[in-house]
């Protein structure tokens, strides 16, 4: 039996958090390879990128494996500097112009390439780039977004503060920030924010009280009406000073915020990070496919929530398993969906990339504020957030 009252908490981090700076740079490199290599006549199905980024005090190290055409180290460095500038880092300890950038990318392993390009053994179709398990989740908690409320509103707080920082609507806030939202649930539904935490980097001389005065109107703006009550506890910059931040305050690495990237701990995570990987890596593309399917199932009104697991073997095209969970009261529905979903969408790496149109430069925008719960972009970004499978599901299930 579901508990009548319980609390759940999720956190988010801003685009200026050191790990997210690293994610952004890695995804900019994926986009660069798609832009440059396709412009030079390379088949986008042949592009490979696995880029890892480390950021620290005025230093960026980029390593990994790639396959592309006409992409130089200088261009990789240029997109990294442009990303740092766009985020807003012009600080003594981390500056887009003065940071030293090492580019250590090299060619993809021929052994991996052979399995991915042609499959292995009897498997002749393009295979998965690695073994692994991926999850996708959706629920009715946030209308339209189909996301768990704690992570969704943690993202929204930081996203809104970044918007007003970039627009110069406010002064004093710097790029690095973290948020945390605790939600009280009654009978399985979110009803109140029990606690909200915000820690944001700021200009010298501002107190926690000053930061609270700046941030509180935007926090109240993004939270649903009635969710902030007299019982809501706020912690705004609870440690006091937060002047030194970003990669100067803490080393950043690609792929360290996988729970922030997904469902805030409300649903399982397979363990593989997304950023810096082209869509042959099922860590990324199959997680997008699982979210797409779960969201369409919930949006179709078939279940109030859905969790999907996919698993793959390296070099093998078809998934090794498909698991759908829509709750113990919907066991027959879950079993039926496991049969139906592969007929509605090919879950091979090529099938996923075709269905979601992933062979394009759409990845840098995913690096902050979550890969899920967004709106599809006209150019194909966040295609996995579309709900164009609803009618097919209704007709089939």
In short:
The chain is α+β, with helices and mostly antiparallel strands and 397 residues long.
Structural class of the secondary structure composition? alpha+beta
Q: Radius of gyration, Cα only, in angstroms?
A: 21 Å
Helix content: 25-40%
The largest beta-sheet arranges its strands as: 1-8-9-10
Total helix count? 11
> What portion of residues belong to β-strands?
15-25%
Question: Mean pLDDT, as a whole number?
Answer: 94
Tell me, what's the shape?
flat
Name the poorly predicted regions.
none
Number of strands: 13
What is the succession of H and E elements?
EHEEHEEEHEHEEHEHEHHEEHHH
Profile the largest sheet: 4 strands, mixed
Q: Between the first and last Cα atoms, what is the distance in angstroms?
A: 27 Å
Please provide a written account of the structure.
- Helix content is 34%, strand content 24%.
- α1 packs across α2, α4 crosses α5 and α8 crosses α10.
- The protein has 397 residues and is of the alpha+beta class.
- The protein is flat, with a radius of gyration of 21 Å.
- It starts with a strand and ends with a helix.
- The strands form four sheets. The protein has a four-stranded mixed β-sheet. It has a four-stranded mixed β-sheet with strand order 6-3-2-11.
- A hairpin with a 2-residue loop joins β8 and β9.
- The protein is built from eleven helices and 13 strands.
């Amino acid at each position: 039996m579901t508990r009548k009252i319980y609390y759940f908490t999720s956190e988010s981090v801003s685009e200026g958090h050191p790990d997210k700076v690293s994610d952004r740079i890695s995804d900019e490199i994926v986009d660069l390879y798609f832009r440059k290599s396709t412009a030079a006549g390379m088949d986008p199905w042949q592009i490979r990128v696995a880029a890892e980024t480390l950021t620290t005090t005025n230093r960026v190290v980029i390593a990994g494996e790639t396959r592309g055409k006409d992409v130089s180290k200088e261009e990789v460095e240029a997109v990294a500097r442009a990303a740092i500038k766009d985020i807003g880092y012009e600080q003594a300890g981390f500056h887009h112009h003065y940071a030293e950038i090492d580019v250590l990318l090299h060619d993809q392993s021929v052994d991996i390439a052979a399995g991915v390009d042609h499959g292995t053994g009897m498997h002749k179709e393009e295979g998965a780039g690695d073994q692994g398990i991926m999850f996708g989740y959706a629920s009715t908690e946030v209308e339209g977004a189909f996301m768990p409320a704690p992570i969704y509103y943690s993202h929204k707080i930081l996203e809104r503060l970044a918007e007003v920082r970039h627009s110069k609507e406010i002064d004093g806030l710097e790029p690095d920030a973290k948020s945390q939202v605790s939600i009280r649930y009654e009978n399985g539904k979110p009803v109140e924010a029990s606690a909200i935490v915000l820690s944001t980097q700021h200009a010298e001389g501002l107190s926690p009280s000053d930061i609270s005065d700046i941030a509180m109107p935007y926090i109240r703006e993004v939270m649903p009406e009635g969710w902030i009550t007299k019982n809501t506890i706020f912690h705004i910059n609870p440690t006091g000073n937060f002047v030194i931040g970003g990669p100067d305050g803490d080393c950043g690495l690609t792929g360290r915020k996988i729970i922030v990237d997904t469902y805030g701990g409300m649903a399982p995570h397979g363990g593989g990070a997304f950023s810096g990987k082209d869509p042959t890596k099922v860590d990324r593309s199959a997680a997008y496919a699982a979210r797409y399917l779960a969201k369409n199932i919930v949006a179709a009104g078939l279940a109030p929530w859905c969790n999907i697991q996919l698993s793959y073997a390296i070099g093998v095209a078809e998934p090794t398993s498909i698991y759908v969970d829509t709750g113990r009261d919907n066991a027959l529905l879950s079993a039926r969906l496991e049969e139906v979903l592969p007929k509605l969408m090919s879950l091979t790496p090529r099938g996923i990339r075709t269905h979601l149109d992933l062979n394009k430069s759409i990845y840098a925008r995913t690096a902050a504020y979550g890969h899920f719960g967004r709106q599809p972009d006209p150019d194909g970004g966040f295609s996995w957030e579309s709900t164009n499978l609803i009618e097919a599901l209704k007709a089939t299930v």
